[in-house]
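Exercise 3.2. Students should predict the tertiary structure of the chain below and write it as structure tokens, then compare their answer with the key that follows.

Predict this chain's 3D structure.
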Amino acid sequence: MTNRFTSPPPTELITAKLEVLLESVNSIYQSGGVSLQDDIISAYNEAISLFYESLDGSIVGVSYPIMKGMPADPVDYNVFTLAIRKDLEAIFLETGAADRLISSNFNTIVALREQVLSVTRRIASKVGDYLLYVDPSLGDGYFFGDSFNSAAYLDLDSSLEDKEECLLNQEEGVIVLPLDGDPARPKIIKYTINTNSNGIAGNNQQTEALPHNKIEALGDGQPDTWFEYERVTQTSSSVPLVLDLTLTLGEAAIINHIHLSPVQFGTATPVKIIKLETSLDGTEYQSIKEEVPLADFLSETEEDVFILSGKTSKYSGEGFFSFLPRRCKYVHIVLEQHTPYEIESTSGSSLLRYAIGLKDINIFSRKFKTEGTIVSKPIEIGKDVSKISIWASENPIDVSSLADIKHEISCDDGASWVAVQPQGRNQVVYPEVVNINNSQVGAIQTGGEVTSLRHKITMARYPDAFTGQAVLESDRKATIELVSMPTQSPSTIKFSYIGYGSRFTSSLWKL
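Answer key:
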């Protein structure tokens, strides 16, 4: 059986022609133009004969050629015009059929796309969870996590929050401090393609393609405009296409977020972000890559984060990068594409096109409020918990005069909280291991088994510790990601969090 979505459907043009011609016979009968049976049969035969004659062409035909200088015969012209009308009616019916087919296929494609994205997200979540099991520290216990693609595991608007609730940013899959107003957008006044680039602007050789060679489209904010950069070859090459781009701001500004919106060409490999850095003087550049943390507990690498593919930024297909605030006037971006795709050139030959496409590059200065908190929903373990410990990859790592991240655990559904410090910090402010109902010094005695826990994160920044132009730097504060997954033996709990510009993992387990 053929696939109705991939096989060309049979045309309705022949059916439409027959319908138009037979309708004309019916019209003649209804109008009283014929009254005898022989006249009706004759009209029908003429319609069928004309149908067979026009199978590969138009219904239009003339009884004799019109000679130059001869007077026009209105009867022949009426017949000629009537035949044209029949052709137009047949074409109209065929166009309606094509419209229905296109609409049906479009709706099907959209539905299938959503199904594929949904399955891809679920698979990616499961793969990430399975990768966590290779960590020997997980051991025999219970694991819980959240990718922050939704609020499924967060107790939003909880009565247990003693401060303003942190913002769930599903684009980046993180939690940030509450935003303080709309973000500022420094104006980009110049886009420069540097000499390290090895292609040309636009789509110049693909047949029936728009050029898209205006680099100013990167900042016009229009969804239907974009910029393309290409290198076209006859054979594949080991040398990637390189786009080395510098953005110049109108004046020096403090920024902490960059958004890249790519154009996907369906290549086997995505565009790689080789460099993403800023400079105040245009000479010395500081990369933001070191400030965008990696979920190494999910075996995530820098190459996984700094790409522009369909799975970028939690499958949004766009690049969202938050980092420590820095004052700059220049933003330097280097992109590479290693894989071409085949095109038909304007000369009719098949060529290989290496292409990089960008819809927008947006630069932001996001200001955050001074403090915020977020609370998890109750985590049901099912067995008694005796020890709790947290591992974290954070920025800042330690409590400072500028910012702080505090972790707390509740064994009684939020009635009381106990501070716990992630292991690996340089300064010990809170216990790294919380003991529950055991003989250890300082152990929490609850009078019964602890089978349910809540985890609260409190983030704070201290603006008074900043002076001069550094004041916005205090607006940068940790965001959190809660990553969870159960194991077969529920005697241990393990959490993972992603910070605003940082990520950290926390594990809770029973010894």
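Discussion points: The CA atoms of residues 60 and 85 lie 9 Å apart. Residues 74-132 form the longest helix (59 residues).
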